[in-house]
Amino acid sequence: MPNSVASFIICTILGFGIGFAGFELANKNDEASTETPTETATNTNTPTDDHEPEETEQPAPETVSASSEILNAKGCLSCHAVSSLDLDGGATGPDLSQAFTGVEDKHGKPLDEFLKEPTSAVMSSVISGSPLSDDEVQQIVDALQEASEK
Ligand code: HEC
């Protein structure tokens, strides 16, 4: 009798132990498979991270996200798409893919001057309501130059 009680206890402990070990293993595999993609995503999404300088293979995606960032941050995308940069946006204003070369023909001044002092109605009120610094104008011009070359 005591013997069977003892073996019951031992079996219980063994069974529990093996089950737990299996659970642990499965858990570790899960962690390993989910961790890799999460880490890559974090790295590409946070260019301000400390890891940044170590990574040398990122300039291409960064240029695109930098261009979209300034257009997004300034609210341009609420009215404009830039299809050549794959940026979806509002349909109130024209697609800006060719604005870098097109603005001078249409509005009689190069893009950077147009952005400082737009000649068209809607853009005049957009810019007077939220003026762009020289630096921001330059970033937008760079982004739209890139867009026009694609
Ligand atoms: C409230 C909506 C709105 C916002 C916000 C807006 N735009 Fe516009 N944009 C327009 C409209 C509408 C036009 C068409 C011309 C006009 O009536 O001003 C235009 C025209 C332009 C043009 C001339 C394009 C062409 O082919 O004639 C450029 C360049 C431009 N916008 C850039 C920008 C940039 C850069 C921003 C962000 C700083 C911006 N816009 C924000 C509505 C907007």
Automatic annotation (TrEMBL):
Annotated Low complexity bias: 34-47
Chain intervals for the UniProt region annotation (Disordered): 30-67
Keywords per UniProt: Heme, Iron, Metal-binding
Protein's UniProt keywords contain Zinc: no
GO molecular-function term, one example from the UniProt record: metal ion binding
Domain Cytochrome c: 62-148
Protein name: Cytochrome c domain-containing protein
Source species: Mesobacillus persicus
